[in-house]
Design brief:
The chain is mainly α. It contains eight helices and no strands. Helices cover 71% and strands 0% of the residues. Helix 6 crosses helix 8.
């Protein structure tokens, strides 16, 4: 690997490391997992060719997309493991997908935590592309154009995918509430 590429990766880590960590943390809700994801992303950069580096026009959006993908992969893995292992102790991760201020009462905070866990569970039920587009738009607040560029889509397709994903998530969450199903995330 060229010295120039190593230097660029170090600069990217300094400039965007907190943003990558923050993205991962908002999705997985665990600082240790977010640190691992951040480290893995920068390690992956060492494996990229110089040509791959030249193709990136917006490093912030590129790294955010990588963090989103890695975080969603971890959520899916944790979800599969929790479904496979019903013998777990049933403890829930008290995490949030969306960074927000604590609610004034414990009851409201508990309800919000349950809602976020249900959203997290529902995100594991849509396609990977749908989950990525949803998180990049509504959690990371990227523009349609930035999402389109980094996922090789058109802006129009991003809008279509977002609309379809919101409808799917609404059905999944409505079904979950109607059946009284409560999702518990297992470590």
């Amino acid at each position: 690997m060229k010295k120039k590429q190593k230097q660029l990766i170090a600069e990217l880590a300094n400039q965007y490391g907190r943003q990558v960590f923050s993205t991962a943390y908002r999705i997985v809700g665990d600082s240790h997992h977010a640190e691992d994801i951040t480290q893995d992303i920068y390690m992956k950069l060492f494996k990229k060719t110089p040509k791959a580096f030249d193709k990136v026009n917006n490093w912030a959006a590129y790294l955010t997309t990588m963090a989103t993908s890695a975080s969603l992969d971890l959520l899916r893995k944790k979800h599969r493991l929790s479904e496979q292992s019903l013998a777990d102790d049933g403890s829930c991760d008290n995490v949030s997908l969306i960074h927000c201020k604590p609610e004034p009462t414990p009851e409201k905070q508990f309800s919000l935590t349950q809602d976020i866990q249900q959203l997290r569970h529902a995100l594991t039920k849509v396609t990977e592309q749908e989950a990525k587009v949803f998180v990049l738009r509504f959690v990371e607040e990227l523009s349609y154009d930035d999402i389109a560029q980094h996922l090789a889509l058109t802006s129009g397709n991003v809008g279509i995918i977002l609309n379809r994903t919101r409808q799917k998530l609404a059905r999944l969450l409505s079904h979950s509430q109607n059946t009284g199903e409560k999702h518990e995330a297992h470590s």
